[in-house]
Amino acid sequence: MSAILKVEGLVKRFGGITATDDCWLEVAAGEIHGLIGPNGAGKTTLLSQIAGSLKPSAGAIHFDGQAITGLPIHRRVGRGIVRSFQITNLYKTWRVRDAVALAVQARSGSSFRFWQPVQSEKALTDEAAAILASLDMAALGDRITGDLSHGEQRLVEIAMALATAPRLLLLDEPMAGLGPSESERLTEQLQALKGRYSLLLVEHDMAAVFRLSDRISVLVAGKVIASGLPDAIRNDDDVKRAYLGEE
Length: 247
Ligand code: ATP
Hints:
247 residues, globular, alpha/beta, ATP-binding, binds adenosine-5'-triphosphate
C-alpha cells in the first residue's frame, strides 16, 4: 500500500480536553478511507488538522512523503488537500455553474485573485460545465444554488471541491441531513470517484461508510483503535464493544 497521507501521533488539546490523543492513520493513494467513531471522538478535529485549520499540539502529518504539519491551508490546497466546500449564504444567489467555475479558478492556490482570472471566463465556465457533466449534474448548471434541495447542494459542494483538482478530498459528514433517496444518489456519486481521488470520509451513516470504503479506521476518545477492511472492522471485538455495539 502506498500511503498518500500519514498522520503520526497527532495530539490536539483544547484547554483540559484532549480531542485527538496520539492519533495514527494512513490513507492509501486512490482509496476511500472511512473514519467512524462516536460523537465527540475527535473526527472533525482530526480533519481540521489535516486540512490545516487547526494546529496540532504535537505529532506530525506527511502528505506524499513530505511533512506538511506547519503548512498554512492555502499551501495544502496547492498540494491537493481539499476539504469539501460548505455552501453558505455567500453562494446561495450564484448559478451552480458559476460557483463551480469559481472553484476551478481557485485551483491556482495562493495566486488566486478574483480580479485576475487565470483562464478566460469562457474556459472557466466550459470546464465547470464539463465537471458537472462528469458528475451527472449537467441539468443543475443553470440553477441557483439557494433553490436546490439539500442533497443537490451537497452534490454542488462536492463538484466545487473536485473542481480544485484535489488529490486528497476530506469529507465531513456529507450524508448529514439528507433523505434516503438523496443519500443514495450521493453514495453513487462518491462510488464513481473511487480510484480517481483519495478520500477521507467522516460519516455517521454506517450503511454508506461500509458500502463505500476500501478501508475504515475507528476513532474512539481521540485514538484510532482499529484500521482495516470493512469486514474486519465489522467483526472486530474492540470496535463492537467501543462503538458499533451501541448502535
Ligand atoms: P461528532 O461526531 O459529534 O461530530 P467528532 O468525533 O467530530 O464528533 P470533535 O468535534 O472533533 O468530535 O470533538 C472532539 C472533542 O473536542 C469533543 O469533546 C469536543 O467538545 C472538543 N472540541 C472540539 N473543538 C473544540 C474547540 N474548538 N474548543 C474546545 N473543545 C473542542
